[in-house]
Amino acid sequence: MTNSIKIIFANQKGGVGKSTLCILLANYLAYWKRAVCVIDTDIQATIASIRNFDERTRDGEPPYEVYPLPLDDPDAMEHFMEQSADIEGYQLFDTAGRLDDDVIGVLLTHADYIIVPFEMETKSMMSTFSFLRVMASLKERMGVNPQLFLVPNKYDRRIGTAEELKNLAGMIHEIASYGIVTPCVHYRAHMMRIDTYKISDTLLKSAVYEAFKSIVTFIESQK
Amino acid sequence: MAKKQKNNMRDLINEACGRVPKSYKDDEGNPQEEGLQVNPGKQEAGRNSDTASSTGDAVEPVLAPSAGSAPTSAKVVASDPASENDAAPTAEDSEGQTSPAWDFLMSHCNSFDPSDKGVSVRIDRKVKKRLDLAKARMSETVSMKGMVSAIVLHFLTEHEAMFKQQQQLQEMS
Q1: For A6-48, what is the HEC assignment?
Q2: Total-model pTM
Q3: Among A84, A87, A141, whose Cβ lies nearest the Cβ of B100?
Q4: Residue to substitute from A100, A107, A127, interface B, most B β-carbons within 10 A
Q5: Splitting chain B (173 residues) into consecutive groups of 10 residues, what average pLDDT does each group show?
Q6: ipTM associated with this complex
């Protein structure tokens, strides 16, 4: 039995908010006094770069560690995932999300939970559907069963006609067959101002609260 | 995280970034030249190359540059001098029996059959060509990376074929 809780943020569609939500979830977990670290496997090293900047501009100790891990060798990643299973706490992995990445398969098959952010927009959802179908195939073939959380991100209720929203609701209904659809993460300007030291009250109490609460509650009920 | 756990994690990260994986060792078990990174899956698969999806840091001397970035571009065969006379291996070659990944791929190769619809509809020639290419790729790849990209290509091509077929059915009705 492993002590770690490995959560992978993945979606082949770029710009859906994988890195942002990874940072916010880490901040949220740290706020609620959970042991957490972030492992940035994305070659862009978005989160590691933000942390480097924050260390120069913020005071005090960071609430969690951010480790860059831009491996492209599946064997090395497999070894790391196995060895890190004994380290207690939440391990959040930010990924490039590209399905042609060498190590994404290893990450997805070793994950305990996979968070798939997506935008409530047709093109984004079509791409997400394709990703989820591949995920379902991988799960079946590799004999693993990580729980998927599907997070509608950047939701702006002002956008969309009644017909469009109805169509989106239908797509949400269909996407729910792949995993748990969390409450929406509403678009907030504060999303552009996140850092890796703390979560703002605005985001904590409004934009991400319901979604993260549902995720963490589910995870901790499985312990 | 407790300090001890942080140290353990840091050690693992450093080890993962610095170690020479077994797959990088030569036949005598000696680590290969530092900085040389070869995807073992590509070596074992014989030389099937996916698109130029490398992050750019790895050096892949056994592979010729891809002709294009789209998955549907012509398949590139790597020119490894040590084994260029070898036929492209299959899952059976490596272990004498098919692997689960191989069986899965082969089952998906035959999953889309337009005749199931019960209506004789022409498939767009370009889409048909891409579908055949996707099937061919799926039948040849054995690495995880190849499997994932082949699945993606097949699903997307299948989706496109079905969409166009639906369009034709609508035009006929």
Answers
A1: EEEECCCCCCCCHHHHHHHHHHHHHHCCCCEEEEECCCCCHHH
A2: 0.63
A3: A141
A4: A100
A5: 86 78 50 43 38 36 35 35 40 44 47 43 61 63 60 67 73 74
A6: 0.83
